[in-house]
Specification:
The complex is a heterodimer of chains A (381) and B (437). By secondary structure, chain A is an alpha+beta fold. Chain A has eleven helices and twelve strands. The longest helix of chain A has 17 residues. Chain B is of the alpha+beta class and 437 residues long. Chain B is built from 15 helices and 14 strands. In chain B, strands 6-7-8-13-14 form a five-stranded mixed beta sheet. Chain B is globular. Chain B starts with 6 loop residues before the first helix and ends in a 5-residue tail after the last helix. Classes of the chains: A alpha+beta (381), B alpha+beta (437). At the A-B interface, strand 1, strand 4, helix 2, strand 5 and helix 4 of A face helix 1, helix 2, helix 3, strand 3 and helix 4 of B. Strand 4 of chain A pairs antiparallel with strand 4 of chain B, so a sheet runs across the interface.
Chain lengths: 381, 437
C-alpha cells in the first residue's frame, strides 16, 4: 500500500489550489427528456406502486421507476446502479430526498424490462437490491441518521432498526392501500440529524441515564464553562474533586434535573451518556410537513421508551405495525395519521392503537407544556 | 472467510428490504479480491473492521466511535468530520474513519459516468462506503484517514470540478426538491435558486463564521417534499397569488370516474367512486370551492393554496401563473429548547435571477443573527429570545397579518418611546401640582 500523491504538495498547500467551486451544475445531469421539458410538465399518474409517468406540454412523457435503497451504500452497489442506468436509461438516474433511487425512461415500452431487471436482483443474503415501490398512499423509504455505524452520540442504531422496520412494512412499500402517504423517519439521538420531529411515525433514540463523569480527564479534554453552558436545564456546575491526592477541576451534575439530551457530551467528551439498559427508542406519531388540508404538525410522543433489542428491535417494529394498522382501519381517504388522531381525539388514538398512556407522555417541559393540557370539558369516554 | 464473526448482523441479511449488511459484506469481498488492482490508500480490510465494530455495538448496545477530532482541508472549516474508533487495537482498519461531505447536485440527478468517477476516487482513497445521501443532502463519503483528506480534495477539485459541502457553524449544504425539472407543482425553479445561492455563499458555506449551523432548503410548492418548513433556518416554499387554472372537461372526467383521483395514488383499495363533495370540497380548508351545475367554481381570493385539490385532480387543476415563493424562517429540530416550525416572514417574493430581493432578506437576517446570536443559538431560538419585531427591524420588512396565526392575546406591548406622544420624560413636580402626595 504505497502512498500515491494526487499532486497536492503539503509544503505548499496553496499551490494550484482550487476552492469555493461549489457543486456540479444540475443541468449536466438532466436526462434529455427532462432537459427538454423542464418547467412544462402538465400532470403525473401512477401505473403501479413505484412506477409513474409525467406528461409535458410537448406530449413527451417521462416514466419513472422508484426503488428503495439503504442509504448506507457501497461503491459496489452504486456501480450496479450505474450499470442498470446505462442498460435501460441512457446512463441517467436520480436519488430522492428519502433515499430512494429513481430510474427514468422516455417510453412506456422500456418500463417493463426495467422493472423486471430491478426486481430480479438480490443480495447474497436473499434481500432485494432494488425493490420497486414507495409511491402514493403507501409507505416510502425511511429517512434516517448514522447510528452505531459512524456516530459518537447515538442512543440506538439507525441502519438496523430501519432494515427491521422496512421488512415489517414492506407490503405497504409496494402498495397504495393506506388512506394517505405515511412517512416514517429515524433519528438515533435528540440531535435529530434526520429531523424526525414532523413525521407520521418517528423512531427516536434516547438516553435515560445522566452523563458519566471522567473526572481525571475532564479538565484536560473539555472547556468546563462550555460544558456548563451547554446544559439546557442548568444541571451542571463546576466543582473540585480529589483523585489520588490531587485536586482537579471538574463538574457536578444535578441528576434529577437531567433531561438526557446529551448536549453536554457534544461539548465535552468526558461526559458520556451511552448505556446498554439506559438507551433505547421513543416512538412519536402524527407529524407532517405538508401544508395539504391542514398545517404542518409536530410528531407527539406516544411510547416513552422501548429497549434496544438488537438485531431486529421486535417491540419497536410491532408497535409501529400496530399504529399503521389502526390508522389504516380508521382514517378517511386523504387523512394523514396526525389528522386522524386529532379528529378522533388522542384519547381514542391510544385506545385504537392499543398503546398504554403513562405519565411520561404528559408534557412538563417549559411553557409549551401548558398548551398541551386539556382546557375544555370536551373529551371522550 | 470473514475477518470477524458477525452473528447478530447476519440476522439483518434476511427479509425483503435491501440489507446494508449484505452490501457491506459484498464490498468487503470486492476489496479483498481487488480484481481491478487498485492501490488502496487506506487498509484493504476497512469494511471487515467496520462490520466488526458494528457487531460489537450490537452486542454492547453502545456506539464505539469517539468524539471527532479537528481535521479538515486547508482553508476550510467544514466539510470533514473527524471520527476515531474507541477500539483501534481490535479494529485497526477503522482506527481513523473520517467523513467527507460532498456537495450534491440540485435535484440529485446524476449520470452513471459521474457517479463512477466518484466511486473510483472513493475506492482508491477511502472505504468505498457512502451515504446516498446524508440527512442534509450531501453525498457522504464514510471513512478515510487524515492523510487522504487533502489528496481527495485535490483530486475532487482538479479532476471532477466538485467541492465539499458544509459542516459545523456555517451555511450547511443547501438542498432542494425535484422541482420544475420533473414536477408540475413547482412554482419556481428550485434547482436554479439552490445552485445560485450555494455559489453566491461559498465563503459562508466553507468557513464557519456563524453562531451555529444555518440551513437553506428549497421546496417548489406547499407539499414540502424536502421538509424545508420543519428543518431549515430559511425555507423557500413556492406559491402563487393569482388563480388556479381549471380544465372543466377534466373536472367532468374526474366526476365521471374516467380519471382516477390523485394520479392513482389510492389504487390499493376500493374507496368507491370519486365524490367531489366529500373528497375535495369537504377537505378544502377554506371552503372556497363549489359546483355551479357542471362547472367547478373556485373563489381564489379565499384559497390558501394548501394544494389538496390540485394534488387530487392534477389533470383538472394547475397552479397559478403569477408565481414566486414564501420565505419562512427559524425551523429546527428539538435540541435544545424544543422543536420549532418555520415562521412566515415573507408572504410572497418573486424568484427571478439575480435574486437580489431574496439575498437582501438573507443578508439582513445574517447580520442580525451574527451580531446578537449566542454561541450555538439557532436563528429560531434568537427569534424566540428577542421577538419577531427584532426580525422585522433586521430585515426592514413591514408587519403583515399573514405573518401571524393570530394577534397577541396579552397587552404587554413593549412600546418604544418614540411611538408615544410627548415621549417619556416628565416632570414629577408638574404632576404633583394636580395630584397631592
Amino acid at each position: 500500500m504505497a502512498f500515491v500523491s494526487s499532486g497536492y504538495n503539503p509544503d505548499k498547500p496553496m499551490e494550484n489550489r482550487i476552492s469555493d467551486i461549489g457543486p456540479k451544475k444540475f443541468d449536466e445531469f438532466y436526462p434529455p427528456v427532462i432537459a427538454k421539458n423542464k418547467g412544462t410538465w402538465l400532470y403525473h399518474e401512477y401505473i403501479q406502486p413505484g412506477v409513474y409517468f409525467h406528461v409535458a406540454e410537448s406530449g413527451d412523457k417521462v416514466f419513472t421507476v422508484r426503488v428503495g435503497g439503504a442509504r448506507l451504500m457501497s461503491t459496489t452497489h452504486i456501480r450496479e446502479i450505474c450499470e442498470i442506468a446505462e442498460k435501460h436509461c441512457d446512463g441517467y438516474l436520480r436519488f430522492t430526498t428519502r433515499n430512494n433511487i429513481e430510474f427514468m425512461v422516455d417510453s412506456e415500452k422500456k418500463v417493463k424490462p426495467l422493472v423486471k431487471d430491478l426486481e430480479s436482483r438480490k443480495f447474497a443474503g436473499g434481500s432485494f437490491k432494488f425493490p420497486v415501490g414507495g409511491t402514493g398512499a403507501g409507505i416510502t423509504n425511511i429517512v434516517h441518521t448514522q447510528g452505531w455505524i459512524h456516530c459518537h452520540t447515538p442512543a440506538t442504531d439507525a441502519s438496523g432498526p430501519v432494515k427491521a422496520t422496512m421488512d415489517v412494512l414492506f407490503d405497504d412499500f409496494k402498495d397504495h392501500r393506506l388512506p394517505a402517504h405515511l412517512r416514517v423517519s429515524l433519528a438515533c439521538c435528540l440531535n435529530m440529524c434526520g429531523a424526525v420531529h414532523c413525521s407520521d411515525i418517528a423512531i427516536l433514540g434516547y438516553h435515560r441515564k445522566p452523563p458519566l463523569l471522567d473526572h481525571e480527564y475532564l479538565d484536560k479534554m473539555c472547556e468546563i464553562p462550555l460544558a456548563i453552558s451547554a446544559c439546557p436545564t442548568a444541571a451542571i456546575k463546576p466543582t473540585k474533586v480529589e483523585i489520588g491526592g490531587a485536586k482537579l477541576n471538574s463538574v457536578a451534575v444535578n441528576e434529577s434535573r437531567c433531561m438526557f439530551c446529551g448536549n453536554c457530551y457534544t461539548m465535552c467528551p468526558s461526559m458520556p451518556l451511552a448505556d446498554t439498559e439506559g438507551d433505547g427508542i421513543v416512538i412519536m406519531a402524527g407529524g407532517k410537513v405538508s401544508n395539504r388540508i391542514s398545517a404542518p404538525k409536530f410528531s407527539k410522543v406516544v411510547v416513552a421508551f422501548i429497549p434496544n433489542e438488537a438485531p431486529r428491535w421486535p417491540q419497536t417494529t410491532d408497535t409501529i405495525k400496530k399504529i399503521v394498522e389502526a390508522y389504516s382501519a380508521g382514517a378517511k381517504k386523504y387523512e394523514r395519521l396526525g389528522e386522524w388522531a386529532e379528529r378522533i381525539g388522542w384519547e381514542r388514538f391510544f385506545e385504537k392503537c392499543e398503546l398504554e398512556f403513562s405519565h411520561h407522555l404528559i408534557d412538563d417541559f417549559r411553557d409549551p407544556a401548558y398548551y398541551t393540557w386539556r382546557h375544555t370539558t370536551q373529551f371522550k369516554f | 472467510m470473514a475477518k470477524h464473526k458477525t452473528p447478530m448482523l447476519d440476522q439483518l441479511e434476511s427479509g425483503p428490504w435491501p440489507s446494508f449488511v449484505s452490501d457491506l459484506k459484498q464490498q468487503a469481498e470486492v476489496r479483498a479480491k481487488n480484481e481491478e488492482n487498485i492501490e488502496f490508500q487506506i487498509p484493504v480490510d476497512v469494511v471487515e473492521d467496520l462490520l466488526g465494530v458494528l457487531e460489537l455495538s450490537y452486542k454492547h448496545g453502545r456506539t464505539h466511535w469517539k468524539h471527532g477530532g479537528i481535521v479538515g482541508v486547508f482553508g476550510y472549516g467544514g466539510g470533514v468530520i473527524g471520527r476515531y474508533c474507541d477500539q483501534p487495537q481490535a479494529f485497526p482498519g477503522v482506527a481513523h474513519f473520517h467523513t467527507m461531505r460532498v456537495n450534491q447536485p440540485s435535484g440529485k440527478f446524476y449520470t452513471a459516468e459521474y457517479l463512477r468517477k466518484l466511486c473510483d476516487l472513493w475506492d482508491f482513497r477511502g472505504s468505498g462506503i457512502t451515504n446516498m445521501h446524508g440527512s442534509t443532502g450531501d453525498i457522504v463519503f464514510l471513512g478515510t484517514t487524515t492523510k487522504q483528506l487533502e489528496e481527495i480534495f485535490y483530486e475532487m477539485t482538479h479532476n471532477l470540478n466538485q467541492d465539499l459541502g458544509g459542516s459545523g457553524s456555517n451555511l450547511r449544504t443547501p438542498s432542494d426538491c425535484v422541482g420544475s425539472a420533473r414536477c408540475e407543482f413547482a412554482c419556481y425553479d428550485t434547482h436554479a435558486l439552490c445552485y445560485h445561492l450555494t455559489q453566491e455563499y461559498q465563503d459562508e458555506l466553507h468557513r464557519p463564521a456563524f453562531p451555529y449551523k444555518f440551513k437553506f432548503k428549497f421546496d417548489g410548492c406547499p407539499n414540502c417534499c424536502v421538509a424545508s418548513i420543519a428543518r431549515a433556518d430559511m425555507s423557500y416554499i413556492g406559491t402563487w397569488r393569482d388563480e388556479i387554472r381549471i380544465d372543466q372537461e377534466a373536472v367532468a372526467a374526474y366526476i365521471g370516474g374516467e380519471i382516477a383521483p390523485n394520479g392513482g395514488a389510492h389504487s390499493g383499495r376500493d374507496w368507491g367512486p370519486f365524490d367531489i363533495q366529500s373528497e375535495i370540497f369537504d377537505n378544502c380548508p377554506t371552503s372556497c370551492m363549489w359546483m355551479e351545475g357542471k362547472k367547478l367554481m373556485i373563489d381564489n381570493k379565499e384559497c390558501n393554496r394548501c394544494m389538496h385539490c390540485i394534488n387530487a385532480m392534477p389533470r383538472a387543476l394547475r397552479i397559478g401563473e403569477d408565481r414566486g415563493l414564501s420565505i419562512l424562517v427559524g425551523a429546527k429540530a428539538p435540541i435544545l429548547d424544543g422543536a420549532q416550525m418555520g415562521s412566515l416572514l415573507v408572504p410572497f417574493i418573486k424568484a427571478e435571477e439575480p435574486y437580489d430581493e431574496i439575498k437582501a432578506v438573507i443578508e439582513g437576517i445574517w447580520d442580525w443573527w451574527m451580531e446578537e446570536g449566542k454561541n450555538r443559538e439557532r436563528l429560531g431560538e434568537l427569534m424566540k429570545r428577542q421577538g419577531f419585531q427584532k426580525l422585522l427591524a433586521a430585515t426592514g420588512l413591514a408587519p403583515d397579518p399573514r405573518m401571524v396565526q393570530e394577534p397577541r392575546s396579552n397587552p404587554y406591548i413593549f412600546w418604544n418611546e418614540d411611538e408615544v406622544e410627548g415621549g417619556w420624560t416628565r416632570d414629577i413636580n408638574e404632576f404633583r401640582k394636580h395630584h397631592q402626595r
